[in-house]
Amino acid sequence: MSQRTLYKAQDGMCPWCSLPLPADFTGTEIDHIIPRCRGGPHESWNMQLLHRDCNRGTGGKRRVLTDEARALADKHGVILRDPPRPVGWTRAMRRGEPYIRSTLEQERTEEK
Ligand SMILES: [Zn+2]
Questions:
Q1: What Rg, from alpha-carbon coordinates, does the chain have?
Q2: What's the 15 CA to ligand 1 centre distance in angstroms?
Q3: CA 64–ligand 1 middle distance (angstroms)
Q4: SS3 (DSSP) at 88
Q5: Exposed / middle / buried, residue 67 (Cβ in 10 Å: 0-12, 13-18, 19+)
Q6: What's the domain count of the chain?
Q7: In this structure, what CATH number is given to the domain that contains residue 34?
Q8: Which domain holds residue 111?
Q9: pLDDT in tens, 42-86
Q10: Quick one: 58 and 103 in the same domain?
Q11: Rounded to two decimals, what is the model's pTM?
Q12: Same domain, yes or no, for 72 and 88?
């Protein structure tokens, strides 16, 4: 799946901000609608061309699961994986404490 193919399929528009994409693809990125980390496959129906800022910048999509992504997953029978663990989770697990409890304790300590 090339940038050109996606560009043509999208009529040269960015599906995220609905503004035109540059014809030379400068500052564009191929994005997975269902993020790879959530189990999205590397297949044409799961790919779109976005401005780089729309893909990862402030106000952009980052790693969120959009309604479109959920609908696609449903349609293609993709099993959605859990989102990546939050920072601090691994450390809490290694100490043998549940992450949520350690977070709550931290907040309680900060209140004192
Ligand atoms: Zn855009």
A1: 19
A2: 7
A3: 15
A4: coil
A5: exposed
A6: 2
A7: 1.10.30
A8: 83-112
A9: 999 999 999 998 988 665 666 678 899 999 999 999 999 887 666
A10: no
A11: 0.69
A12: no
